[in-house]
Sequence to fold (321 residues):
Amino acid sequence: MKTQVVTSSQATSASTDRAQFAIMDLIRMLAAAAVCGIVFSLFAAGLTLLLMNSAEAHNLNLKNSTVEALALTSATESINRCARPSGAVKAMSGVKLNPGHLVTGLGCDQETLEAIERDWRIRINDDVAEVRIMQTFLIPVNGPTTANFYASLPDGAVLSSLKFDAGAITQTGEPVTLEVFTNMSRADIGAIHNRSRLVVVINDRHIESDSILNLTPGETVTIEYNYTMSVLHINNSANLNIVLQAETLSSYAASTITVGTVWVEWLNQHPRKVTSALNDIYVDQTSSGVAGASWFSADLSASRQFNIQWDRKSPVLNKSG
Fold:
């Protein structure tokens, strides 16, 4: 049996090698740990940024949803707590005729204004009547500076134009149907406003304007609109009926005195005579027939109507030989 003898130098060399290997292993472990730490740190930072962006987006969406929900809730509560604008209620309920009124303010602070003056100019051309209504409203001294206009046209009437005049502010209406308005974007409406025009929505025969802004309390607003309608004929008799004043809309409107004037002019064939009309009407009777008629009231009562009937036959003129 052989016995291996290890000298002291050999033992020292082996110990040195093991120490070097241990140091190298330690360095590799530290390097690996450092690399892993950097990778983990980068991953954690990226994840944090991702979560932050997601949270911000969520908060933004939540904010927008909350604002919309609050606006919807506020509007719903306003409708539930307060009476809706008289014009909107009447338009929905199918009121037959209403020459027009203003609704000022928002929510519970809304007030219905009746015109202080209305002027009709009716031009009859055979079977068609061209009607222009000009009406003036007085904005209350302590009233709001915004308003919406509501009106209802006669059956079969077609709106041709509408204009608002509030002192230094004059705007023309842009008539659109309810179907078109429903599909309009904010950009579409903004483009109309940029042309200094107001959106006028026509639902069946009911008219509702966009908000009229920057009104001056204590001053007047003049609204003029034009439409055409057919004249009713029964045999040789023709008839035209115009609503001068709607039913009472509010206590404030009921206290308003409305002055009314109606002018009627026959452009083509002059009728032989006026067979039925309001009292105190003035008829311009000439040898060639009726050229025109006019009527005035210093205080239009609620539901007041102007009705005129005439004989369509032209007068027979005697010819001397």
